[in-house]
Amino acid sequence: MNKLKIFISSVQSEFSSERQMLFEYISTDALLGRFFEPFIFEMLPAKDVSASMAYLEQVQRCDVYIGILGRDYGSENSKGLSPTELEFDRASELHKIRLIFISNHPENLRHPKAKRLIQKAENVVVRKKFNDAYELKTAVYVALVNLLEEKELIRTAPFDASVCKDASMDDIDTERIRWFVHTAQRKRGFPLSPDEEPEKILTHLNLLKNGKPTNASILLFGKQPQRFFISSEVRCALFYGYEVEKPIPSYQVYKGDVFRLVDQAVDFVMTKIDVSVGDRSQSADVPVNYEIPRSAITEAIVNAVAHRDYTSNGSVQVMLFRNRLEVWNPGQLPFQLTIEKLREAHASFPANPLLAEPMYLAGYIERMGTGIPDMIKACRQAGLKEPEFAQNETFTSIIWRKEQVAEQVTLQVTLQVTQQVTQQVTQQVTQQVKNLVLIIEDEMTRDELQEKLQLKDRENFRKLYILEALENGFIEMTKPDKPTSPEQKYRLTEKGKLLQKQLKTK
Known about the structure:
Elements lengths: L3 E7 L5 H13 L3 H4 E4 L11 H11 L2 E6 L13 H11 L3 E7 L8 H13 L2 E4 L2 H18 L23 H15 L9 H7 L3 E2 L2 E2 L1 H7 L12 E5 L11 E5 L3 H13 L4 E3 L10 E3 L3 H14 L8 E5 L3 E6 L9 H4 L10 H9 L9 H11 L6 E4 L3 E6 L2 H5 L4 E4 L7 E4 L4 H9 L6 H7 L5 H14 L3 E3 L12 E3 L1 H12 L1
Helix pairs in contact: 1-6, 3-4, 10-11, 11-14, 16-18, 16-19
């Protein structure tokens, strides 16, 4: 980010030490030095240009003009104007941000033209009086911090509660709001109807500020959130080995609102890991178990999306290695929490509270403050090592895979081609097709299959599971002549039954 240039002006002989103090203070202050670059006339190198013209050039280049006015008026040119007044006039002509600070001297001690300049400044800009250098420094600090807040370069309210610059209600997807209300009614008994006006629903969720969409409302329900927050995406990658290295067999960058980001990222992981099926001894419905519980994967990704620092240029990264899943979140733990405290039930300190609440209402966050302990419990019950967490430049969650899964590379499929001839066929079968074949019972609809596999992205499911299995001859349609029939179901072919048998016995 380019720093805002500040021109500090005063009668040279009157406030020389104050100018130098402000220059050093603004340059070295941890906050102000990050955003501002001050200039005083002592910095001007000697050159063959009149001093007054050189100063006016600096005024033209600056973003902020600070004028310190006191008793003296300064030397005058042929028109009876001092450099200080010329500089103020130039800043006014160019519509620069002008901050005027006036010494608290008795009026009878001021030069008549200094009084006139002060009156001119008072008529057009906000000014502040000071008694000494300390008060001047404090007043300048307050004014510059207010300026940063007005320009939304810093904030005192939570990021998600701030108004989204340049956004309007036209940028809100009303269909996504209706989807949310339906979901929140089913999950948490949300009191409003999907037929209510979007403004009323957003107001109920505290997502409008003076009638304007907040950052949270755009991230939750925006038509194109990445137009306003370019880094609000999730990058997912699959690696064959244990480190980040090429080739990368699968890489996706997901965009959209936070609900879609979570669904797409979770489905990415689910499509790349092993699944197993139980028997009917416990229930008529055969249970489906993934090597990593979906709840643990979802918790790690939801945490990253909901609690990340959206002012960071970094993105959430989800990386599946041979032995682990890593989720990177560009954010920091709140001061009240440590890695150790995360492992037990704790108070909730959401970084983006207005973003987290609708995600809770929609069932993406189960209970405030218990997410990490629930993740640890789910992994233990699945026979996995306890997840690990680390806070460095990013917050990282690590979920370990089973060792035997990590060592699995290819699948040998034995196919009986005809009743007379049996031959061995070695075929690479995608993880998605294996998972689909494994869970099919009799004839099942696409919705039943997708629900069984705990997947939410319909288009990815169609491409990666259904079409892939159809093209490779593992499943078939019950109505092949009517592929789009609402009564369409899918069943295993003989080839698929043989694959399923081998998957269940391995």
